[in-house]
Fold this protein.
Amino acid sequence: MIIAPTLFQRKPDTDKLSPTMGTHDHGADAAAATGVSAETEAPRVLIGRCHEIVLKGGNRWRFVEQLKRNLLGVFADAGLGRVRAEGPRILAELPARASDALACERAALIFGLQNFTISRPAPLAMDALKRAAIAAARAHPARTFRISTKRAEKRFPLNSMEIDREVGGAVAAALDLKVDLENPELTINIEILPQCAYLAAGKYPGAGGLPVGVTGRATVLLSGGIDSPVAAYRMMRRGLRLDFVHFHSHPLVSAASREKACDLAAHLTRYQMRSTLALVSFADAQREIVARAPRPLRVVLYRRMMLRIASVLAGRAGSSALVTGESLGQVASQTLENMTVVEKAASLPLFRPLIGMDKNEIIVEARRLGTFETSILPDQDCCSLFVPAHPETRARLEAVVKAEAEFDIEAMIAGAVARTELVRCEFPPRR
Ligand code: ATP
Ligand code: MG
């Protein structure tokens, strides 16, 4: 499933972007000095910028390496050229076959980037910068523009403001455009780095957060509903690589929730490139609970069984925490008392990233994420099966433990684990 990215500030004009940039450089000396060839079309470079704070500590190396791996992964079908870090920037050479639009779409999926540009190198010489900026402005028709320079290489003789002014003057004169510092239609970003300069038309917001994989691995209980995909997204954004587990009661009910879980897992895989979804047959465990336990406790007992089974699957996958989409007080099973009793069945830490969110806020996020439309498709969640008219809202641990004494819990877990199917998701999909 491909979801149109909504993060773009400005859609680049793929065909027209900078075809002439860097090609008519008369500053031959500067070109020779910087290694940027004046004669050949320089490759586009995706430049991602990271939040400097996370780059200061001892984990910088891990952060950068993970970010590089993730970038290589998200462009696996197009094949990135060299990827390297330079200060708070990650520079990745884009292959010719990756259009600007595709590059933007993919880069927007990578957690850890605050923003990014599709840039082209230019020699470190004013006349070359001016020509490149004029070419960039010509390729992006606009009435007003500004130049925004960052001079990381302080040995460059002009400071950022002077570069802005001189290059801006040249662009305005060449193309008869107006400079607007407050609200320009086009911003041309110039970065002065030690080897060469980079120019880009526009800058795109990144996904923020931390690179997936950098903080560890967890298992998310993914229903077909609205909340758990949002919970998953939030934890991936904090750098967790996720495994997905979905419980279904097929054939007691239709396979709809399984299909939704597969679609949602595939969609979320775009952020981490590879995922495994465990589809757990829960019907037998539910039959046992329905046959032996007091009616009002059913949902609490379902949930405890889910957490036990998920804990075993997580252990096998090397996950060290569980994640759910619960939010306090949202439904009967999410009262403080019930959640307290439910979480005791987990043998790993349980994260509930949506705990303090309103349903409306979760829906806004699900829409933005692109999971909402799938989540609202009709299905029958296994937990809606045999639900009593008056479920317990204040379960007590003693009563629950007493009810569970009627079951062979280990056998129920082993049975469910044995009947689990694994579905693998990959992004970008292999042809
Ligand atoms: P969601 O929209 O995520 O389904 P919900 O508001 O429907 O949430 P519940 O049905 O009470 O809430 O589920 C709470 C959490 O329990 C879910 O967010 C999910 O993490 C987990 N969960 C519920 N049903 C399943 C299921 N069938 N498979 C996996 N996890 C589930
Ligand atoms: Mg649900």
